[in-house]
Specification:
Order of helices and strands: HEEEEEHEEEEEHHEEEEE
Strand content: 35-45%
Helix content: under 10%
CATH class of one domain: Mainly Beta
Strand order of the largest sheet: 10-6-7-8-9-15-11-12-13-14
Protein name: DUF2642 domain-containing protein
Number of strands: 15
CATH topology of one domain: SH3 type barrels
Radius of gyration: 19 Å
Distance between the termini: 43 Å
Structural class: mainly beta
Length: 224
């Protein structure tokens, strides 16, 4: 753990995220890429690039039990704290809650981690391609609890498609297909992907209008 966080380790802290959301929990680990909290029920993994500020909770009535067991990769004597990518890779195959858009978390399984995005299977949205830079937090389910009480067969219906190395190339691969960006936050996030040039994505809406979307603000993509 970096020295700047030593004063907070094992303290109950409040972490404010950019976008007016926050978490309270015992600070378990942190480095310049990721912070790990235990909120009394779950381990919450938060990329540092979305953290606005961290402070110790002063309210003595605000008590959160410390975890009785740490995840195996946090329970050794090795002082090395895992990176954001390493944490994501360790979460592969686990039922997980993630948050990146649309003011609500989604649930499913991380299948693969690429250079700047990862592939997530959701029983609701099916195969999602999600930009790493927009992932706000993720929470692996404890004891492999299943989302919506679905069976493993229902949950692990993984895509048979091959994945490109980068998010930009994966989007380019979807040309001439109907896609949804950012879980359909806006009506113009849904349409036929026509072209992509200089990080601008051209889509055709239901009414035949042409919209150009900036790749930098694309959080996720899935095919209809």
């Amino acid at each position: 753990m970096n020295n700047v966080f030593n004063q907070f380790k094992k303290e109950i802290v409040k972490v404010d995220l950019v976008g007016k959301s926050d978490f309270r929990g015992t600070l378990i680990e942190s480095n310049d890429e990721i912070i790990v909290l235990f909120d009394g029920d779950d381990f919450v993994y938060i990329p540092m690039n979305h953290v606005d500020n961290i402070s110790v909770v002063q309210d003595e009535m605000d008590t959160i039990q410390r975890p009785s067991i740490l995840p195996t990769y946090l329970n050794g004597n090795d002082e090395k704290v895992l990176t954001f990518d390493e944490m994501l890779n360790l979460a592969k195959g686990f039922y997980t809650e993630i948050y990146f858009a649309n003011r609500q978390p989604i649930h499913g399984i991380i299948y693969n981690v690429m250079s700047d995005y990862f592939i997530f299977h959701s029983p609701i949205y099916k195969t999602l391609y999600i930009s790493k830079q927009h992932l706000k937090w993720f929470i692996p389910f404890l004891d492999q609890q299943r989302p919506f009480d679905l069976t493993d067969k229902e949950l692990k219906n993984r895509s048979k498609t091959t994945f490109e190395a980068s998010f930009e190339r994966q989007i380019e691969k979807m040309k001439n297909k109907l896609v949804v960006f950012n879980l359909g936050e806006q009506s113009h996030h849904i349409g036929k992907l026509v072209n992509m040039n200089n990080k601008m994505i051209e889509i055709r809406t239901a009414r035949g209008n042409t919209i150009l979307l900036n790749l930098e603000h694309i959080k996720s993509m899935h095919e209809v």
